[in-house]
């Protein structure tokens, strides 16, 4: 990875983290309330998701359809699989259950490391161990 790519990744990661903070997706209580459809439901995160799709959709279409290659990489890294398999479904289910139980997922967990809260540190370490174990199984 060259210097321009690293600076670009750092800037985009910082912007993403700021977006997570502003939208309160780093707040587990806010996320759990969003997922609690029959209780204390808070629909505000749906607006965050819709807003993200409104921004992402046209930009994705423009970049993928109009560019032969990315500015800071050799090729686009797009998924090649077109069908669902059991690994994808099971992984998505585990992710969803974890997100629903804890109210936090990888991006917000990493953003929350800045709080030095032990629960976010343990969550992130567990996530990294799980990722490493998944790589070893391949």
Distance between the termini: 25 Å
* Rg (CA only): 17 Å
User: Helical element count?
Assistant: 6
What is the helix/strand order? Answer: HHHHHH
Characterization of the model:
The protein has 138 residues and is mostly helical. It has one domain. It has six helices and no strands. The chain has helices spanning 3-23, 28-35, 44-66, 86-102, 106-112, 118-137. α2 (28-35) crosses α4 (86-102). The longest helix has 23 residues, at 44-66. The chain is globular, with a radius of gyration of 17 Å. The two termini are 25 Å apart. The mean pLDDT is 89. Keywords: Membrane, Transmembrane, Transmembrane helix. It holds the Pfam family DUF6691.
List keywords for this structure.
138 residues; 70% helix; mainly alpha; globular
Short summary:
The protein has 138 residues and is an all-alpha fold.
Write the layout of secondary structure elements.
Blueprint: H1 3-23, H2 28-35, H3 44-66, H4 86-102, H5 106-112, H6 118-137
Helix pairs in contact: 2-4, 5-6
């Amino acid at each position: 990875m060259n210097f321009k790519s690293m600076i670009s990744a750092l800037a985009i990661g910082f912007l993403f983290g700021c977006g997570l903070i502003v939208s309160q997706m780093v707040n587990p209580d806010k996320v759990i309330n969003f997922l609690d459809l029959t209780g204390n439901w808070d629909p505000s995160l749906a607006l965050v998701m819709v807003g993200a799709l409104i921004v992402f959709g046209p930009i994705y279409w423009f970049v993928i359809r109009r560019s032969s290659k990315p500015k800071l990489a050799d090729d686009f890294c797009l998924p090649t699989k077109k069908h669902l398999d059991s690994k994808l479904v099971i992984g998505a289910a585990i992710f969803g259950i974890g997100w629903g139980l804890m109210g936090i997922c990888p991006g917000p967990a990493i953003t929350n490391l800045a709080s030095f809260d032990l629960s976010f540190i343990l969550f992130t370490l567990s996530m990294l161990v799980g990722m490493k174990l998944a790589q070893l199984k391949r």
